[in-house]
Amino acid sequence: MKFGGDEGRVHSRTIYVGHKSCPPNEAYIPPKFCDNRIVSSKYTVWNFLPKNLFEQFRRIANFYFLIIFLVQVIVDTPTSPVTSGLPLFFVITVTAVKQGYEDWLRHKADREVNEYRVSVLEDGRRIRKMSAKIKVGDIVEVEEDETFPCDLILLQSSRDDGTCFVTTASLDGESNHKTHYTVADLESDLQYLSATIECEQPQPDLYKFVGRMHIYRNSQEPDVRSLGPENLLLKGANLKNTQKICGVAVYTGMETKMALNYQGKSQKRSAVEKSINAFLLVYLFILVSKALVCTTLKYVWQSKHDETWYNEKTQKEKETNQYLKMFTDFLSFMVLFNFIIPVSMYVTVEMQKFLGSFFITWDKDFFDPEIQEGALVNTSDLNEELGQVEYIFTDKTGTLTQNNMEFIECCIDGFQYKHGDGSSELDGFCVTDGPVNKIQQKAGREREELFLRALCLCHTVQVKESTKQRQDQNDQFDQIDQVDGLGLDHGFLDPPQKEMGFIASSPDEIALVKGAMRYGFTFLGLESKNMKILNRNKDVETYELLHVLNFDPVRRRMSVMVRSKTGDILLFCKGADSSIFPQVRQEEVERIRMHVERNATEGYRTLCVAYKHLSAQEYARADADLREARLALQDREEKLMAVYNRVETDMILIGATAVEDQLQDEAAQTMEALQGAGMKVWVLTGDKMETAKSTCYACGLFKKNTELLELTLRTLEDGGRSREERLHDLLLEYHKKAVQDAPPVKLGITRSWSVAGHDYGFIIDGASLSMVLSSSSEPNSRRYKNLFLQICQNCTSVLCCRMAPLQKAQIVKLVKNSKGNPITLSIGDGANDVSMILEAHVGIGIKGKEGRQAVKNSDYAIPKLKHLKKLLLAHGHLYYVRIAHLVQYFFYKNLCFILPQFLYQFFCGYSQQPLYDAAYLTMYNICFTSMPILAYSLLEQHICIEVLLEHSTLYRDIAKNAMLRWKLFLYWTALGIFHGLVFFFGVRFLFSNPALQDNGQVFGNWSYGTIVFTVLVFTVTLKLALDTRHWTWINHFVIWGSLAFYVFFSFFWGGIIWPFLKHQRLYFVFANMLSSVSAWLVIILLILLSLLPEILLVVLRKPRGPHARQKKSSAGDPQSPQSPARPLLTRTFSDESNTVI
């Protein structure tokens, strides 16, 4: 069987309720479905070691060092296997322990979910079983405040009206109560229910479900009931304000909509790590080239020179195959020059990331007194990625806004009203403005009361049924809007009623009911289809609720039909101005339009209110049409839409409302700063378009002059053509506007600054996005994606509304994999944001009110949106600069280290003779030069934090991996080659004088190597000291301490005869060397000569760029940043910041 409409593509499944055969006389063959286990872990006990080792050795550096280690073990090489084996073992072990611990936490979380106890009805008995044991077809009982363990069809509710309320914060981020309905006319005792359910196969769309139930009674033809999303309770949602419900499991385990919307956690790699790998390949090529050159020249040299008497070959060497000998020589040279690849860099980088992440945790600016928590770092691997973000994808509800709607003002018949706290008027209204010739006038009292009745009746709000005790329990956790306006209402409510609160599917509905309450009309609740209102005169009015015409994103309005006590049938309708204005008499529109447009530009959520008197004949026809459409199995939504549109015509416009969804603290300033830093902000929300659009205006993402390009179901329905054709036309039209006709963007400037006159904003909804991403034909789909991406990338801001969680991830993935592979960041606070948080390069969770799913799955967690500004503009900027310098410096100092070793081979007959002692080879990267760069990479502030936050444009200077580009890499490589040549040939020039000591003795080869090594250690350390701009006592301690330790170690190592050494190569060599004045002179001269170009560069070069003027104007101000136009890594930092992290 297939369903009509869009659902026709989805095959169905048949479920036997309670595992009973239907009809009863037929044999029951249980269908096979997956169980209810949830698995989010990556490893098991058995596959952890092989799988983890495989993943780690996929990293090019780890694999390379493994090969070198094996070569050192197998082949007779100049250096010990310990020199490369020990650091490799350390890195592999630390990473394995870290990843194993993270996976153990996932196992623990899975176990908690799977072993959670639930009630299942079997043969009339209630039994408790683990959640993992639930099967499709089981009848599950859930009590208030419990979470649904799987996707259920609602069969029974403890509420008299057959409804239940749920919150879906963990699914779509909305913390408001949603109403769900039982299947009509079922047996009160589910033990005797005999029924089957036919429904679509599992699919991730949270808002879509089509099915039908066949109910068998006494061998009659089965009754058929249609099932929709209103009957489906989703796993992860919570039962609220309902004592208990019973439902039948239709989707379980990894087939639930929640699981289908979950993206598996993959290993994220930063752009810096990719740059390191690229540089590593270059140095690997240099290494192989050096080994090849030396191997070739060795055999050329041997062919021209006779075998020396002191180095005769053994018989075994003479019998060895020539090619095998050449290969082993090649490997020996590889091992000798192996130190050009900095194995210790990976250890230092890991330590820098791990220790650096504490600065985020310790930052007092991130501490939120409300929740008594600060920032949290879940993944330290991505610190530097915070300084490279190009696209930000943010959730709306709870992230940009507080999800706290407040009634601001209303407009009745063209007169604007605001609630005046100090107003002396009896009705509580205060007229603030209106048509110029009617200032301080009001609409008639009858119109006011009609408007307020509309606000009290046209909604799906329920009054919270709660005792004082239950209220206290739920206050902290439930999103229940307490009636905060009662204090203004002249005390006409009894104290018990002040206990009540409202629950609704949308917070703006609560705001409107509360707004009406402020002005004297109080909604008392719905009892047995009767809505009760307390009016201004303290009389209770009762209206019979006949039909609710639900809101949908295409109509963008909702209506109710009610019957008053006098028998009048009224239709009250509220909705967006664009959907109400065409349905009312046009002469009434202009009076309201001005106020609506003004409120919208102020960022308020505007709704228009209209009504209509229905005659008995009109109502009878509408009632029959609605009942028929609701029972339809095919094209149900389209048939209901047709009836709604037919009824909602020729209405009378009464007025409009303005509701504010309060923004998070400093949301607008944060967005402005992020856009100023060159980042593009996209809002991805499951909310309605109008609400989201208002928020974008309030945040400053859409400006007054922004032209909005809309690609939603509503625009696709216009024109009477097929959706596919309309989609094609709109994409081409918008592409022409935003891309083809737009002036070219200047390099390094985003469109919002280059095109000051005309900005574009793009709006798309979930249904339209599905069409773009999965068009019926493959070529069209690819073309649509490209057009869509190009349009979005040329717009200043993009709004995606009515998004399912998986669609949010699809959008992020689309941008992430687009041309140039821009760095993306996702930020959200609910479980519905987890997919996009996991998909983006950097995922940030907000410690909001909607559970901690987003925080658990994020890379970083912050208490409020405003903290994102400092996290990116200050911490991200500094982390990137520090680690970029660390990487370039490591490659530079290792090139300085190994180039003299390579040059030495030309003077020792290519005999693989080491220039440096084994102790120096091992200690160079581990002890002598590691701590200064680690301290630099943790503490350096090339520009102080206050300036970085004040000038957001500084962030653009480091965008697109600016400090790890090939130009700078070649500069550092050239510097390393220059220093290596100076070290080697400078010392060789000294050795041209045969007698360097007073007694006429000559220096040996170990003295030669020690002098080179001393110049090397001092030069690379002082180079870093010149580059340090932000000095702390720690920098002083490690820089001067490292040099002192080198001197001390050299005296100590050479001053004792070590029993475990075969050869005492350095015995008194260092002390002997320092006894020579010539050696002292050469060491000092060579250090100065090496650093001279760097010093001259700083002294002679004038500062350029936007901050040079600032520096002149604030002469002597140590806080002024140096010119960002000069590459940070090619200059010495002379001025220091006084700010200490």
Automatic annotation (TrEMBL):
Query: What is the native source organism of this protein?
Result: Poecilia mexicana
Which PANTHER family is this protein grouped with?
PHOSPHOLIPID-TRANSPORTING ATPASE IG (PTHR24092:SF38), PROBABLE PHOSPHOLIPID-TRANSPORTING ATPASE (PTHR24092)
Active site, per annotation: D395
For this UniProt entry, what's an example GO CC term? early endosome
State the name under which the record lists this protein: Phospholipid-transporting ATPase
Q: Does the keyword RNA-binding apply?
A: no
| A Pfam family it matches | E1-E2_ATPase
State its cofactor.
Mg(2+)
